[in-house]
Amino acid sequence: xxxxxxxxxxxxxxxxxxxxxxxxxxxxxxxxxxxxxxxxxxxxxxxxxxxxxxxxxxxxxxxxxxxxxxxxxxxxxxxxxxxxxxxxxxxxxxxxxxxxxxxxxxxxxxxxxxxxxxxxxxxxxxxxxxxxxxxxxxxxxxxxxxxxxxxxxxxxxxxxxxxxxxxxxxxxxxxxxxxxxxxxxxxxxxxxxxxxxxxxxxxxxxxxxxxxxxxxxxxxxxxxxxxxxxxxxxxxxxxxxxxxxxxxxxxxxxxxxxxxxxxxxxxxxxxxxxxxxxxxxxxxxxxxxxxxxxxxxxxxxxxxxxxxxxxxxxxxxxxxxxxxxxxxxxxxxxxxxxxxxxxxxxxxxxxxxxxxxxxxxxxxxxxxxxxxxxxxxxxxxxxxxxxxxxxxxxxxxxxxxxxxxxxxxxxxxxxxxxxxxxxxxxxxxxxxxxxxxxxxxxxxxxxxxxxxxxxxxxxxxxxxxxxxxxxxxxxxxxxxxxxxxxxxxxxxxxxxxxxxxx
Length: 502
Fold this sequence. Notes:
The two termini are 27 Å apart. The protein is 56% helix and 6% strand. The chain is built from 22 helices and five strands. It is elongated and about 115 Å long. The longest helix has 39 residues, at 227-265. It is mainly α. The chain has a five-stranded parallel β-sheet, sandwiched between helices. It has helices at residues 3-10, 26-29, 41-45, 64-81, 96-105, 124-145, 150-157, 160-173, 181-192, 200-223, 227-265, 273-280, 285-289, 300-313, 338-345, 351-354, 367-373, 378-384, 399-413, 436-446, 449-465, 478-497, and strands spanning 54-58, 86-92, 318-325, 359-366, 391-392. 34% of the residues are buried. It has three domains: 3-11 and 398-497, no CATH class; 40-149 and 159-177 and 306-392, Rossmann fold, CATH 3.40.50; 200-281.
């Protein structure tokens, strides 16, 4: 029997159990507002009024990415309902760029192995810089791409300090996916009306004034023998010329010194020292003197820059920032290695970083990192203070919860306009010899959504293979369920032992 015929009988427009990735799951994405999620979801997302950090550990397929998508949807709904109390979401779910850039700065030592054993030394400030880069780049994109000019009006109405902060953050962290970063920064500098490091017009005026004074002195020397008049004109003019040229040369050296420092310190930024000098030329020397430009190993400058970023966002109605960290096992260099994931994530488990005002992080981490956590010493826990971070040690599902999730998906997949019997629960697909308790017990062996969906997908597939098109049977007997359950249980056991690919 063709599986499409089976679903047509029940009025199901799309197979509710075929997707294995939440980001590609048509059923889930189409019903985020009404979807059923893990019972701990409310603890993970927390309050919209006072955002807080959460740390979740879960196996592959336990619903971490689905949880992220649902969180993003909830924040979107909240922002639509509270335009003056919005939450800015930063997705930190692609760690490949961070690793690639650090690898360029610190290439791994030559080895007989094709893949190096460990990551370059990651610091908390590297993560802070990357998070700010993502957030600032997205904000600059929105400002410069706003055809309604609403963002332009907001920038013009900002206090001078906030306009400078916006330009400074863009200079440090804006990395456009397309286009030239320098031209973007030039547009933003004109928009924010920030003074450049050294104004060429001012230098030319001072030099011209100096030359006029020297010219007047030479004329006076030719017309009058009185040396006092000549020196009164010549000495100040010469001093003004020398001071102007010295200030200009000094500014160049200062820009060069700061540029080289930023190039050394901001390891996740792609700019060269020469590009840093060019970027710094957009700002006045006095402004830079009192700016929190990153120094070697300096976390405080990053905290100050984060606060400035939050104050800039307030002009667009964003009162809080949430960073969602997901897919840490997927970078090519990490390749699901628990030790490398630990090197990547552990620098961020710092209580001061996790407890910033109106700034929260949502860690959706693989269960292998939870096992690594158990091996840490008391000093680590004292610094991370995970007892204050809404910690969920294992994202677990019961058979009853999975039964309810599958029932919801089944109902969401049924076409209301189809001429078919209304499905009330997952049990409707099965024969009378299969009770809801039998289904709950079978799903309980699967432990998590992805494996529960694999079980049901295989059950339906096996059932359809057992019946021809001219003699269809639309309710699945216990024999098929038990056969597939045993096969799937064995698969999971082999997966745990590392002898099965998945």
